[in-house]
Write a structure and sequence with these properties.
This protein has 305 residues and is α+β, with helices and mostly antiparallel strands. The protein folds into two domains: 92 residues, no CATH class; 138 residues, Mannose-Binding Protein A, subunit A (Mannose-Binding Protein A, Chain A, Roll), CATH 3.10.100.10. It is elongated. It comes from Penaeus vannamei (Whiteleg shrimp). This is C type lectin containing domain protein.
Length: 305
């Protein structure tokens, strides 16, 4: 009987230690079972005896998310709204693009914590989802039955889109050569360029990719020594400080055109990459910056059966 009473008391203590606040609009203080309204977190007034509702690291993040009293800002595809914490953190709804995962984990746990001490319980789930997405991308970037190992088929070429590797331009070229190829060049017509860009965008590749162009003897050349064509359709649009006039047979007015598709002037980078932020148009980049290799195999793909 004594043992039973001890176990009962112990179970009650454990239950009380893990007790949640009776209302979904309340959350427990960090070091005791006192509850405070969620709308009062980081309002400049201490409501918890341990000051956990005004803890600095938590409030620094809370302030950036706060919309109006008791709500968070939510950005979905560029559209902003104010949501209650429950709506903001609801897993069944499409998540906000700027979702603060740690704040949602703290609200789910029902106890205040310093922001940098909040443990994401769902991190393993996210990692597994990321792993599945990674495999899907691998199948369209470095694997294909028509191509050598580490290459996939895009149009008439075998390419290695090594999106998960980050190296400088020289290292990227060495990697390609090590695998029987070289950095990709665009010398066989713009159709090849369009096919590759469509492939990258279709499969959600977001890496910047090194290709085989660089400045040699003050001239933009491909790795085989041939000159790189400047302008449409390959290069990113750049603003040029000089005034340029379009070639027109008939012109009523002289207009100054400051945008050109070409490397930046004066030169900023000496090596070429396909830049994700510029819709995979060619960009002049610092040769020692970290980008992903985009290789082309030395042997053309075999015909499909």
């Amino acid at each position: 009987m004594v043992i039973f009473k001890v176990l009962l008391v112990a179970s009650l203590c454990i239950y009380q230690g893990n007790a949640k606040c009776p209302d979904r609009n309340l959350i427990q203080c960090e070091t005791n079972d006192n509850c405070v309204e969620i709308s009062l977190i980081c309002d400049g007034v201490t409501n918890c005896d341990d000051n956990s509702d005004e803890e600095r690291s938590l409030c620094d993040v809370w302030a950036t998310k706060k919309c109006y009293t008791g709500t968070f800002t939510c950005n979905k595809g560029g559209k902003w709204s104010c949501l209650s914490p429950k709506e903001y953190c609801e897993e069944s709804n499409p998540p906000c693009d700027d979702k603060a995962e740690r704040l949602c984990q703290m609200l789910l746990d029902g106890r205040l914590e310093p922001h940098d001490e909040i443990v994401l319980r769902t991190s393993v789930d996210y990692a597994e989802i990321s792993g599945k997405e990674f495999l899907e991308k691998v199948n369209v970037t470095i694997e294909h039955p028509d191509c050598p190992h580490l290459y996939t088929r895009v149009g008439d070429h075998c390419l290695s889109i090594f999106f998960f590797g980050l190296v400088n331009w020289g290292e990227a070229r060495a990697f390609c050569k090590m695998n029987g190829g070289d950095l990709l060049t665009f010398q066989d017509g713009f159709q090849n360029f369009y096919e590759i860009v469509r492939h990258l965008r279709k499969h959600d590749i977001t890496s910047d990719l090194w290709i085989g162009g660089a400045v040699r003897n003050k001239t933009w050349t491909w790795v085989d020594g041939n000159p790189i064509e400047l302008g449409t359709p390959y290069w990113s649009l750049r603003m040029n400080p000089d005034c340029n006039h379009l070639n027109q047979s008939v012109s009523c007015n002289e207009h100054c055109h400051r945008y050109l598709q070409r490397p930046r002037k004066p030169t900023v980078g000496m090596c070429t990459a396909l830049n994700f932020e510029n819709f995979f148009y060619m960009s002049d980049e610092d040769c020692l910056a970290k980008r992903s290799p985009l290789c082309v195999a030395g042997k053309e793909p075999s015909e499909r059966a």
